[in-house]
Amino acid sequence: MRKYIAEFLGTFMLVGIGTGSIVYSAASTQSPLTVALAFGLALAIAIYTFGPISGGHFNPAVSLSMAIQKRLSWVDFGGYIVAQFLGAIVASAAVYGGVAAYLKSSTVSTALSGQTMTVSQFVSYVGLGQANYATGERLNAFAFEFVLTFLFVLVISIVTKLTNVPAPLVIGLFLAVLIIVALPITGGSFNPARSLSPAIFVGGKALKHLLVYIPAQLIAGALAAFAANYFNKTSDEKAVKA
């Protein structure tokens, strides 16, 4: 149970801090760098904190890859993805709950020039940090999420086997870099739990876009497992020969 709670809390941190950085900067000039760092540093801190307990996945695509690599049992895989989706959904609910306070802040008041906006109006207009792509860009969105998720999960699978590398920091910084690249195209999700949770509260096209995001991310995670097995096997063989 400790492992599942750790996955719940780590995913809550990742989604809550990451999407919160998008939602609560809506009234000011947003920077792709600050959004990317919010996600990347949140992930690094979550892995440092909960990694020794659960391995620090916080992403169903990562857990699927680890299960295929036999680094996670299929029983635990089921428990992990339930914990991850629940953690993400609770995080989006928390971000939604904070909108009322955000609307009362001086930043929003200044941006609205004294006009008022309800929580539902704000969420309808700004969203909750959901990942979106432009109309007609379905194939491009699938390709971006597939390729970048594949690279992300592959890096995780390799660096977590290296003893001389600060894996949490490398993973967090790599996520930040990938988000900067993909933010204008897909929002840079690379995580089915992160894709689903804000879409539940926003609805509309965000839910329809899940038909692109989630398959791309899970297929990429599965293929990354086979690539990781190849590279890790090669590394192990070299170590034995040495």
Concise overview:
This is Aquaporin. The protein has helices at 2-23, 32-54, 60-68, 74-103, 106-112, 119-126, 138-159, 167-182, 192-202, 205-208, 210-241.
Describe this structure in words.
- 76% of the residues lie in helices and 0% in strands.
- It is an all-alpha fold and 242 residues long.
- The chain has one domain (2-235): Glycerol uptake facilitator protein (Up-down Bundle).
- α7 packs parallel to α11 (210-241).
- The relative contact order is 0.17.
- The mean pLDDT is 92.
- Keywords: Cell membrane, Membrane, Transmembrane, Transmembrane helix, Transport.
Q: What do we call the CATH topology? A: Glycerol uptake facilitator protein
The CATH C-level class name: Mainly Alpha
Shape: globular
Integer tally of domains? 1
User: How many strand elements?
Assistant: 0
Into which percent range does the helicity of residues fall? over 70%
Described by strand count, sense and barrel closure, the largest sheet is: none
Q: Write the H/E string, N to C.
A: HHHHHHHHHHH
Distance between the termini: 40 Å
Which architecture would the CATH scheme give at its second level?
Up-down Bundle
Low-confidence stretches: none
Number of continuous helical runs: 11
